[in-house]
Amino acid sequence: MSDLDLLTQSLARNVKRWRTERGFTLEALAARAGVSRGMLIQIEQARTNPSIGTVVKIGDALGVSVTTLLDYEQGPKVRIVPAEQAVRLWHTDAGSYNRLLAGTEAPGPLEMWDWRLMPGDRSPSDPHPAGTVELVHVTAGELTLTVDGVEHRVPTGASASFEADTPHTYANEGDMPMEMVMAVSVPPVR
Description:
The protein is α+β, with helices and mostly antiparallel strands and 190 residues long. It has helices spanning 3-22, 26-33, 37-44, 52-62, 66-70; strands spanning 87-91, 97-105, 109-117, 122-125, 133-140, 142-147, 150-155, 159-163, 168-171, 178-185. The strands form 2 sheets. It has a 6-stranded antiparallel sheet. It has a 4-stranded antiparallel sheet with strand order 4-9-6-7, with no helix packed on it. Helix 2 crosses helix 4. The longest helix has 20 residues, at 3-22.
């Protein structure tokens, strides 16, 4: 079985599991996530490979991390994620990417990401649920972070935190690759 097949089946099983655990109908989850009921049915039947944006919306609506939705085994209390198993979820032809390094439920989803943005690249993000906080630490280059229309420069070695329940964009307006580590904390679904 390919890695893609494994992820598709894991996503199907985990979306259905968390939807059932939360007591959501397909219609209720579709409305909360802003995706169609038909898309959810295809995902739960492992008949489609949705975009990362769709997976993020479903995770946010369920109050679980992307890692939890893609996890194909419930492991011990300590979970080591080998470098080669970090999941690359977004990339550009120029060489920009992000990788989900690790995640857990604590008490809501908590994720750690590794990002690289090549010069001129940007990655916009829709607002996350109220109470979501993001932390970034730039390890190379300079991040141009736009939160709710306001630009902030975050140079090498600097960190930033912000409430991510508003539109935000990560951009590299410099002439060298920008690298950062990011943590995202989403509050639990009530």
